[in-house]
Amino acid sequence: MIHVGKVYKSFGNNTAIDNVSLEIAEGEHVVLLGPSGSGKTTLLRMINGLITPSSGSIRINDADIRERPQNELRRQIGYVLQRNSLFPHYTVEENIAVVPNLLKWEKRATGKKIRELMKKLHLPETYLSRMPDELSGGEAQRVNIARALAADPPILLMDEPFSALDTLTRKSIREEFMQLDEFQRKTVVMVTHDIQEAFELGDTIALLHQGKLVQRGKPLELLYNP
Ligand code: ADP
Ligand code: ADP
């Protein structure tokens, strides 16, 4: 479903991604694991079309993402960042509605979907009129997840989605999230530097070091065949 072929990315003289190839199957949950500066975010942003590779190719469902209209990528890909990525001047409801509105969904369908997601993510409906600064860290992150899921994209990209939360909140949101059928049936690529999180959420772990993909395998394979 996602094909990364011999991708390089440099910023000036600094090589952030160094000849990475990766195949991600439909429904697979891949975790990009590695220390700070190893290129995880750069790779994720290239899959999202936000950064263009210096060379190599990225294809989604056999089409090069450079040849795809932005609207089509938005429909295909949901993107979750760390907590502070909600639009501060939009209410919770307006934040979650951003992509459905861009895709010109009917108001009624959008409203229905938003209420369904609020329920699944254990957010009271009364929060729909709140502003992001009236939410706790955990609540804001649930809204971020709802926003990414609103248009039901088949692919979900997540960049350290739980790392800004305190340990207890992180554990409970992560466990809730793993139970969602939205998570289970989507193709997911998640960035983290937290090994425990990687082992819990990933079917496959791709280990990056200094921009190179040094290992790729199931969590237990990595543990026993280092
Ligand atoms: P990670 O997500 O693993 O922490 P990044 O992908 O953010 O790593 O960064 C990989 C390397 O690329 C780092 O050396 C970083 O400094 C560099 N880098 C990332 N983005 C930029 C940018 N926009 N301009 C210059 N260098 C960048
Ligand atoms: P945390 O410790 O997780 O950061 P907060 O202390 O920020 O949590 O928030 C605790 C509760 O108070 C949350 O349910 C949040 O929704 C609510 N809350 C926080 N700020 C406001 C506000 N400005 N207006 C209304 N409710 C708020």
From TrEMBL:
Coiled coil: none annotated. Residues 2-226 form the ABC transporter domain. GO terms for molecular function: ATP binding; ATP hydrolysis activity. One of its GO terms (biological process) is quaternary ammonium group transport. Keywords: ATP-binding, Nucleotide-binding, Transport. The keyword Ion transport does not apply. Belongs to the ABC transporter superfamily. This is Osmoprotectant transport system ATP-binding protein. It comes from Parapedobacter indicus. The chain holds residues 1 to 226 of 324 of the full protein.
